[in-house]
Amino acid sequence: xxxxxxxxxxxxxxxxxxxxxxxxxxxxxxxxxxxxxxxxxxxxxxxxxxxxxxxxxxxxxxxxxxxxxxxxxxxxxxxxxxxxxxxxxxxxxxxxxxxxxxxxxxxxx
Length: 109
Fold this sequence. Notes:
Elements: H1 3-20, H2 24-45, H3 55-62, H4 70-80, H5 95-108
Helix pairs in contact: 1-2, 2-3, 2-5, 3-4, 4-5
């Protein structure tokens, strides 16, 4: 298993554990970090040298990629949206599941 693949697996495990512990904020952070790992690998495979960037910055970079289909762009948007003052998402979504979908697309592309 590749190092990035192992990191990806670990982030999703942390996300699920955070959800079990009723810490949805930490689950969102882990889902974002998992997406960042997959984005970095995707860009590296495309020949783009990626500077050291946060997962949030990588998600914003991916928004500019015209090769990313609309359904994946929606997930990227969900992963970068700010939470409300009571730390909730302004829409109903499972960011762990969405991040997993995005990561699967990125690693297959």
